[in-house]
Amino acid sequence: MFAIHMLTRLDNFRKAPISIFILDNEGRIVFANDLWRQYTGISEDRDQEPMGFMSVLDMSQVQDVEEIWAKLTVEHQAISYETRMLQAFTLGGAVDEEKEPPYILCHAFPEVNIEANEIENIIGCFTDVSATKRAELLQQKRSEEAIAAKKLQEAFVGEWTSRPKTESAHAKHITL
After folding, report:
1. Average pLDDT of 127-148?
2. Which end of the chain, N or C, is less packed with Cβ atoms under 10 Å?
3. Dist CA 97 CA 27 (whole Å)
4. Average per-residue pLDDT in the chain?
5. Both 29 and 98 in a single domain?
6. Cβ atoms 2, 21 nearer than 8 A
7. How confident is the model over 72-118, as pLDDT tens digits?
8. Which of 124, 135, 83, 79 lies closest to 105, judged by CA?
9. pTM of this structure
10. Is residue 159 part of a domain?
11. Secondary structure of the chain: what % helix, strand, coil (to 5)?
């Protein structure tokens, strides 16, 4: 009865507006909702590949995947990290060449069997934070441009004020 209840509850998560996944302790997919499959492009026939979900992440964006996995499975700690997918996918799991790969924010925690002190599952979710990330990158770029402009202005003022006084006295007589 409990198993049927749990399956019904999981089925309700299939259409959730957030990507939800459950992994076993070796990284195989136990459950993934429709949105998770849309973002990753991983079909159900690849669910049994240990750590197969890692193939769709831009690994240069993740600090240290082994460290993150160890926090979950060895230290039994919840984790949060931001990364970027390698590609954008369509609803059917095909690569969408027209879209930029999305940035995602992932949260996961271990489901631990307290008596055995073993991991039963890793439960997690992620959401698309691309719009926020693009805004952050744009703000950073504008900030860097403003700093560069300020340095140029300071250099100009410094150069102008360090000129000999005769030049500046001569410049006073020039009218525009």
Report:
1. 85
2. C
3. 28
4. 79
5. yes
6. no
7. 999 999 999 888 887 766 555 556 667 777 888 999 999 998 888 88
8. 83
9. 0.67
10. yes
11. 45, 25, 30
Beta strand segments in 72-146, E: 79-84, 103-113, 118-128
Structural domain count of the chain: 2
Q: Residue 29 is part of a domain; what is its CATH number?
A: 3.30.450.20
Same domain, residue pair 114 and 29: yes
Q: For the sheet containing 19-23, what is the strand order?
A: 29-32, 19-23, 118-128, 103-113, 79-84
Place of tokens 């240290």: 64
Counting Cα atoms < 13 Å in the Cβ hemisphere of 58 gives 15
Write out the residue range of the structural domain in which residue 68 sits: 2-128
Residues 110, 30, single domain; the answer is: yes
Do residues 142 and 120 share a domain? no
**Residue 38 and residue 55 in contact, taking contact as beta carbons nearer than 8 Å:** no
Residue 126: both structure tokens together:
């992620």
160 and 108 together in one domain: no
